[in-house]
Write a structure and sequence with these properties.
Layout lengths: L1 E8 L4 H4 L13 H13 L7 E4 L3 H11 L5 E2 L19 H11 L11 H21 L4 E6 L1 H11 L17 E7 L2 E8 L2
């Protein structure tokens, strides 16, 4: 049986615009982010799927509403972003600083009490496998998930055996994402959702 999961990253959030670490922090979409999503809704052919899911954080739920209404998602904690713990809301002063931080983080070297890479890897694989199980149980073949870039990047690295250090090199534009294809529950390929 062939199954597909369309994974869409949320629109630009306030924390994205202000270069803040935001995982579990519930940061809203910016007005610019909302405008970008409205443009994407008109210009991107998001694949139709049988089921729709969203992270519980408002930036994901609001993105879902803008891009995919009138559909209503099942909101699941499974898809929540990396938990940066006491670093939530910290300012990242430059792309170089971000790269240094994540180069360590992907090797489970944390600065404080943030969720380590290995835990996010376990969580993301379990969440996507549960999505496939739900599809199988309901005799359906496709789902859309609106969630977060950290979760998405870790899932791609772990599922397709990429080097962890390519974490920030995996493209995850706001409002876009990837279509994953599975055969009998096993990942076969992924391709970008493009504008």
């Amino acid at each position: 049986m062939i199954q597909t999961i369309v994974f869409i990253r949320h629109g630009q959030s306030r924390a994205n615009a202000e270069h803040l670490l935001s995982g579990h922090m519930d940061t809203p979409l910016t007005p610019e982010g909302r405008k970008e999503l409205e443009i994407l809704r008109k210009t991107v052919s998001y694949p139709e799927t049988d089921l729709y899911f969203s992270s519980p954080l408002s930036r994901a739920r609001d993105t879902f509403s803008i891009l995919l209404s009138p559909r209503i998602p099942e909101v699941r904690e499974d898809y929540i972003e990396i938990n940066f713990g006491s670093l939530e809301g910290s300012f990242v002063e430059s792309p170089q600083a971000s790269r240094r931080y994540f180069r360590n983080w992907v090797h489970d070297m944390t600065l404080a009490d943030e969720e380590p890479y290995s835990e996010v890897a376990r969580r993301s694989i379990n969440a996507m496998n549960r999505t496939l199980s739900i599809l199988k149980e309901r005799n359906l073949s496709s789902a859309t998930v609106v969630a977060h870039s950290g979760f998405l990047r870790v899932y791609i690295i772990e599922t397709f055996a990429l080097d962890r250090e390519c974490f920030l090199d995996i493209q995850a534009p706001n409002g876009l994402g990837y279509v994953f294809t599975y055969e009998d529950g096993k990942p076969v390929s992924y391709r970008p959702v493009t504008g």
